[in-house]
Structures are given as C-alpha cells and as structure tokens.
Amino acid sequence: MKLYGAHMAANPRRVKIYLAEKGIGIEQVDFKPPYPEMKTPEFLKMSPTGRIPILELDDGTCIPETMAIIEYLEAVYPEPNMLGSDDRERAWTRAVSSMVADLVIPWGNLVRHRAPSIVESYGFKRVPEVALFFEPIVERGLNALEIAIGDNPFLVGDRPMIPDCHAFALFHATIDKFDYKLPDRFERLIAWYARFSQRPSAAA
Ligand SMILES: N[C@@H](CCC(=O)N[C@@H](CS)C(=O)NCC(=O)O)C(=O)O
C-alpha cells in the first residue's frame, strides 16, 4: 500500500496522524504545492477530484477521500480500534467526525477573511464581512465539540479515535497556520488540543 499526500496539508495529515496512532507503517509519497502532477489525466484516474490523500493498494486500486481511506484501513487493521467497538460507539464516533467535518468550510473562510491571508496572494479581495458571517457558525461548531468531549481526555472517550485525528489536523491548520486563538470559553477543547499536541502522532 502507498499513501499519496503532502506535508502538513490538513486532509492527508488526518490519515498520517491516524497511521501514526495505529502504528501502521506504509510507503508515503508527498507532493508539494501547487501540485502540478495532481492535475494530469493519469492522476485524475486515481483521484477524480485531483486531490490528496489517495491510498493505492498493492493491486493498483486507488481509494480517494480521507474518510473512505481511514475506514478502509480500519477494516484491514482493526486493532487498536479507532472507529468504535460496537454499533453505538461507531455511531457516536461518526457523529463527532461529522461535527468536525462541518467546521472545515466555515473555519477556513473565517481565518482566510479575518486577517491578511492566502486570499490576497491569489489576487482576490479579502472580505472581512465574510469572517463576521462565519464566526458564529464556527463558534457554534466548536461549542458542539466542547459539549461532545465532556470530561473525556479524547473527543469520543478515553482513547484516541478517528475524530481526534481529523480535529487535530484541522485545529493545527487554523490555530498555528492562521494564528487563530480558540476563545477562552472552550476550556475543554483548549486542554484537548494541548494534550494531543504532545502525542508523537502530532508530528506526523
Ligand atoms: N474531500 C477530500 C478533500 C481533500 C482535499 O481538499 N485535499 C487538499 C489538501 S488538504 C488538496 O488536495 N488540495 C490541492 C488541490 O485542491 O489542488 C477529502 O476528504 O479527502
């Protein structure tokens, strides 16, 4: 198996953190922005969106899309379990994953339009009102995770699960790359982020 990704790109990083947490070592190929090789017809056969990550199986089959890759790997490498050990736990894990996924677009727009950012370097106008529009949506999503984590050390319970990998990649991308400060009232998420940052997988 081979993982096509990129260093520190949020979606491939979800898989990289997951692989590190699982202790799975597979060959990894990292592309570099602006990713010219990912727009070729050959690449689009591997990933119709022209995006990474992609998991290439030994028979040449390619699986695009982060969640599909992670769920495939979870089926092939069931231990340590990171999706849930019964129907209820799997349902809750998927629910929390979905809450994290719902933050991606609003949070991306908030940080890109709030302060000078990549938007301008692409030659577009930054619109601060867009940030104002998305701010309450992001805070509502963060509040959902603040409630979901409860008193648990990880987002879904007492062990690292798939949503932790997803959320850490997203939080790191916005907090560190865009200098976003989590509002103080999200105490549990702030503590979770500090704890997860100490895990070896956070360096993946
Ligand atoms: N829905 C996809 C999104 C993948 C994605 O947005 N990948 C980004 C890197 S984080 C990418 O390939 N960007 C390069 C491009 O769009 O050209 C997933 O969940 O894997």
How does this model look, in words?
With 204 residues, the chain is an alpha+beta fold. The protein has two domains: 2-76, Glutaredoxin; 87-203, Up-down Bundle (Glutathione S-transferase Yfyf (Class Pi), Chain A, domain 2), CATH 1.20.1050. Helices cover 54% and strands 8% of the residues. The chain has a four-stranded mixed beta sheet, covered by helices on one side. Strand 1 (2-6), helix 1 (10-22) and strand 2 form a beta-alpha-beta unit. Helix 1 packs across helix 7 (162-177), helix 4 (87-114) packs antiparallel against helix 6 (128-149) and helix 4 packs parallel to helix 7. The two termini are 18 Å apart. The model has no long low-confidence stretch (mean pLDDT 96). The structure holds glutathione. Glutathione binds next to helix 1. Glutathione binds at residues 9-11, 35, 38, 50-53, 65-66.
